[in-house]
Each structure stands twice: as C-alpha cells, then as structure tokens.
Amino acid sequence: MAATGSAVGLGNIWKFPYIAGENGGGAFVLVYLVCILMIGIPIMIAEVLLGRRAQRNPINTMRHLAAQADASSYWQLIGWMGVLAGLFIMMFYSVVAGWALDYVVASAQGTFSGGDKNSVGAYFTELTQSTNLQIAWHSTFTILTVAVVAAGVTKGLGNAVRFMMPVLFVLLLVLLGYSYQQGNFMAGFNFLFSFDFSKLSGQSVLTAMGHAFFTLSLGMGAIMAYGSYMPKDASIAKTVCTVAFLDTLIALVAGMAIFPLVFANGIEPSAGPGLMFVSLPIAFGNMSGGDIFGTLFFVLVGVAAWSSAISLIEPGVAWLTETFNINRLAATGSMGLVAWLGGLGCIYSSDFFNFLDKLTANFMLPIGGLLIAIFTAWVMKRSHLNKELGDISGLSFNLWYASTRVFAPLGVLTIFVYEVYSLFA
Ligand code: TRP
Predict the structure, then answer these.
(1) For the segment 21-60, what is each residue's pLDDT rounded down to a tens digit?
(2) Domains in the chain, please, with CATH?
(3) What's the 89 CA to ligand 1 centre distance in angstroms?
(4) pLDDT tens digit string along 162-210?
(5) Assign residue 138 a region: left if phi > 0, alpha if psi is -120 to 50, beta otherwise?
(6) How far is the CA of 393 from the centre of ligand 1 (A)?
(7) Which residues in 216-228 are b (16+ Cβ under 10 Å) and which e?
(8) Looking at ligand 1, which residue's alpha carbon is closest to its atom 6?
C-alpha cells in the first residue's frame, strides 16, 4: 500500500499526460509501456529485494550488502546519489503539489464554473507568475510532508492511503465518463494509442524511460527503504507487479480523462506543465456538481502527491537518524529545509525547475537503477536472490534474473547511447 502511495502521484496525473502531449502521444506511450515492463519491473524487484535483505536505510543497505559480497564500498554511492535525487525531486514536486492545493481553494470558491480555455488558462498563468502565492502553497506542502515523515511513515499514512487511493481512482473514472460524453474521445484515444514513430526522437525515448523510473519511484532508494520495512514472508514479485499495474492503469486513465477534453476545447496537447491544470478545471466547471467534484479531485491529487513526497525524503531521514544520534524531527526538519530552499529556486526560475526535472528523471534515476540492477544480478550471490524471491517459480525467477542481469541494463545503456547519437545526428 505504501509503495503504491509512493508510485501513484503527480507523475501519473500531472506529468504523464503533459509529457505524452509534448512528445507526440502514441509512440511515446508505447515506449513508456515497454520500459515499465522490461526495465521498470525487473529493477523494481531488485530494489525492493536489496532493502528487504539488508533491513537498513539505502546508504547502509548498499554498504552492508557490498561488504557481504566482498565488493567495493563504493557501491554505497548508489545510496548517496539517491538521497540527493530525492531532495532534487522534492524541490519541484512540492511546487506542483502547491498548485494542486491552490486549485482546491479555487474550485471550492467556484472560480472555474463555466470556465473555458481562456479563463482557466489565465488563472493558471497568474498563479505561476505569483511568487508569493506559490511560496505560500509550496511551504504548506513542505510542512505537511515533514509532519508525516517526522511522525513516522507507517501508521497514519498507511491508513489514509488505503482509503484515499480508491476514492481518487473512482473520481478519475467519473472524469473519464465525463470526457467520454463531452470530450472528443476518439481524438484523445488516437492521440494516446496510435503509434506514429516518425514523431519519436532520441529525446522522447529518453523521456519515456526516465518517466518509467519516475512514476515507479525507482532508482533512488525510496523503494529500497520501503522494502526494508516489508515483512519477510510477503511476496516481492507479486507486490511489485501489483504496484506497477495500478500505477500504469492510473496514468492511462488520467491520460484518457484529459486528452479528449484537450481536443474538444482546442487546447494544444503540447501545452506543457499546465495541461492538467487547464483541461480538468474546464471539465469540472461545466458539469453539474463540478465545484464539489473539482474540490475533491484536487484534494486527492494533493494527497497522492503527499504520499509520494514522503518517500522522497524518507531515505535521507532514515540515514540521518540511523547514522547520527539525532531525533527524527531534527532529521526531517533538515531535509525539509534543504528541499524547501530548492523549491524557492524552482519558483523563481522555471529553468531551474526544468533542469532538476530533467537531471533527476533522465539521468540520476536511470543511472541509479542501472547500478542497482548490476549490483543485484552481478555482485550478489544467486542463492541469496533466490531466497528473497523464493515464492516464484523457477521460470519466473530465471526470467527476472536474465532481465536484471542483461536486458534491463542493456536497455538503459542503449537508450543513453541512442540519445547521445541523436544529439549529433
Ligand atoms: N512516483 C511518484 C510520482 O509518480 C514520484 C516519486 C515519489 C518518486 N518517490 C519517488 C520518483 C522516488 C522517483 C523516486 O509522482
């Protein structure tokens, strides 16, 4: 449940539709799905496995398992890079989550009722140009996240997520139904699912792979930290497949709720980060009960972001408390402060915002994932892996092993090479 809470977030509802829009739709979506299946799932299994085996925070997990395998202690760099990546992601994540919080209030006040592309678009532009408003919401979101992490991740949040995630899903289905009736459903469908490979550049392939890591919360230790809290008798493979399935389903439903409205309202699919913040309020603003549904929807987006943000700072907090003799509140407070300051940078400079987004999703997470796969499948003993994944059949194990050892690393490397190549081509 917690892993689903981490995976399902702004990545699914906000980021996936807008980057699919910027990268021309169908072919991009196909590459993304292939990456989830062939790279994301095997590496996610590996990441959970490492955490559960070592029962420590990501930095100490890597140090411990490397020592156990007589390998270089440099492997702990995976953990270090992960803590850094988590902070970097939190810096822009919290700003976007702040937008969602603003939309809670705006929807409740009926700001969007009867809205169209121009009025809602103007509202979004005004919000993203107001530093004060953004700082207020970004700070609110940071405080909310710090509060939960300081109190301990397991209980309170676990329960909240168990209840909120299904509600979020139902609301997405309501939006999907609205979109089907009022939007240009076929245009949306064709955009997302007809594969026009001529639109696919090296950059889009890299973005699709990066997003597969981002949406599954992979490559920076978040899933490793959660793996360390996982009971020894729980099935890693089943859990991972469920999380990946739900995560993908929610992204696709969000996409199918958004694009028919985008086309019906003459919005550019490549409109960028504002795509969800413009198309969905128009839908709510023009349906009956829309103010209430809209308010609830943005509350849930906020909650989804919240349960993801927690996993962004948890590895660093766990490391601080387990390494130095400081309490959880101080550890969480320091992580929160650093992320908050970086968030100010993202509010003042959209270049900084984009830089952090690209740096983490396109480079830090895939590199982290690549190293995790190599460590798991080349450095660790096969018998140890077998023990952690004991519940799956020999065939499934071998399939996973081959993917983690060869295909997933090769996939990541090929995409990097293709990217470099297309830079010069
Ligand atoms: N997966 C989340 C989303 O899609 C974001 C996220 C949370 C994340 N924790 C992470 C991304 C760790 C990478 C690494 O919104």
Answers:
(1) 999 899 999 999 999 999 999 999 999 999 999 999 999 9
(2) 2-424 (1.10.4160)
(3) 8
(4) 777 888 888 889 889 989 998 999 999 999 999 878 878 888 999 999 9
(5) alpha
(6) 30
(7) bbbbbbbbbbbbb
(8) 217
